[in-house]
Structures are given as structure tokens and as C-alpha cells.
Write a structure and sequence with these properties.
Shape: rod-shaped
Number of strands: 0
Radius of gyration: 25 Å
Number of domains: 1
Largest sheet: none
Strand content: under 5%
Distance between the termini: 81 Å
Number of helices: 2
Helix content: over 70%
Structural class: mainly alpha
Length: 58
Amino acid sequence: MFNRVKMFFKEDSGAITVDWVVLTAALVAMAAGIAATMQSSILVLTGYITALLSGWSF
């Protein structure tokens, strides 16, 4: 029984998968944070561009 527990903790075949999941989750969280931070600024900039382009005629 003790040998099985030791072998379980020595096994690292799934460690890379866990690393990739953690890294991907961190990247998604960072992207969501950046998007939430920049959202109001982007909306203001979009308003300025819309006002600028609305006066144009082609």
C-alpha cells in the first residue's frame, strides 16, 4: 500500500497538462482584465470616431 502511494506521487505524466491548463487560465484572466479596464476608453474613442465620420459625405 505504501509503495503504491509513493509511486502515485512520483508519477508526473499529467503534470504538463495541468501546467498548460493553469497557463491558459491565467492568460484568459489577464485578457479579461485588460478588456474590462479598456472598455470605457474604447467606447469614448468609438464615439469620437463616429462623430468625426458622421459629417463626411461620399
